[in-house]
Specification:
The protein is of the alpha/beta class and 258 residues long. The protein is 33% helix and 24% strand. Helix 3 runs parallel beside helix 5 and helix 5 runs parallel beside helix 6.
């Protein structure tokens, strides 16, 4: 397991985070005062029942959606104070994304898809880092292939390389194995874990799968828009037990989860 430095500032932190959709009687409180820290150099999974707010939490942490109240910090930068242009630049330079649907450009080769974030940011390619990613993700023989010529697992590995190529501070993964078979999913999760242990990245993943969550160093549980606890050194069994406990939990944990 990765052991975060207890004295270091978290890579991402949220305080008093709320998100309300709609108004009046139709208002839906997706998040209701979330306090949570995500350690640098660690792999954290976010889990909870359907409708618990886990995807909303990720979108707010990544600056993909606006908060109703509260604050989100990426390192020392408060995302909740940034305008749209500043958020776009921050996401381009400091955050990586891996999504369930891969989101690769079909007309580009694997190599072109991987390098796209650098082109958009106007950065030169660090070939040593590129080669490290390609070797770690076993993509050397697939670089000239287009997405339609790749398996689902290979496409997701290309997406992971794309997320890491700009050396972001944090990689957000939203159900990254949702469209994969069990073998391909296990490969992708292993690569995400290796990116933390061997490449020094910080990964925050939303998943509904206890087996996927067990690849993480820690699982943060969410229920009814509130943090409901955490599981360190998770196993599929401990995650399942934690999710079962949420069904009978009347009062979620109060105070920040760190």
């Amino acid at each position: 397991m990765t052991t975060p430095d207890a004295t270091a500032s978290p890579a991402v932190r949220a305080r008093g985070l709320t998100k309300v959709y709609g108004e009046g009687a139709a208002a839906v409180h997706a998040l209701a005062g979330v306090d949570v820290d995500f350690h640098a150099g660690a792999f954290t999974a976010i889990m909870g029942p359907s409708g618990s707010g886990k995807s909303t939490l990720m979108h707010l942490l990544a600056g993909l959606d606006t908060v109703t109240s509260g604050t989100v910090h990426l390192g020392d930068t408060e995302l909740t104070k940034l305008d749209d242009d500043a958020l776009t630049l921050l996401r381009r330079h400091r955050i990586g994304f891996v999504f369930q649907s891969f989101n690769l450009l079909p007309m580009f080769t694997a190599e072109q898809n991987i390098l796209l974030p650098l082109e958009l940011a106007g950065h030169k390619v660090d070939r040593e880092w590129f080669d490290t990613l390609v070797e770690t993700l076993a993509l050397r023989e697939r670089l000239d292939h287009r997405p339609s010529e790749l398996s689902g697992g290979q496409q997701q590995r290309v997406a992971i390389a794309r997320a890491l190529i700009a050396r972001p501070e944090v990689v957000f993964a939203d159900e990254p194995t949702g469209n994969l078979d069990s073998r391909s999913g296990a490969e992708v999760l292993s690569f995400l874990r290796r990116s933390v242990r061997e490449l020094g990245r910080t990964v925050i993943m939303v998943t509904h799968d206890p087996a996927a969550a067990a690849y993480a160093d820690r699982v943060v549980l969410i229920a009814d828009g509130r943090i409901a606890g955490q599981i360190d050194d998770p196993t599929p069994e401990s995650v399942l037990a934690g999710l079962d406990a949420l069904r009978s939990l009347e009062t979620p944990v109060q105070g920040p989860v760190r």
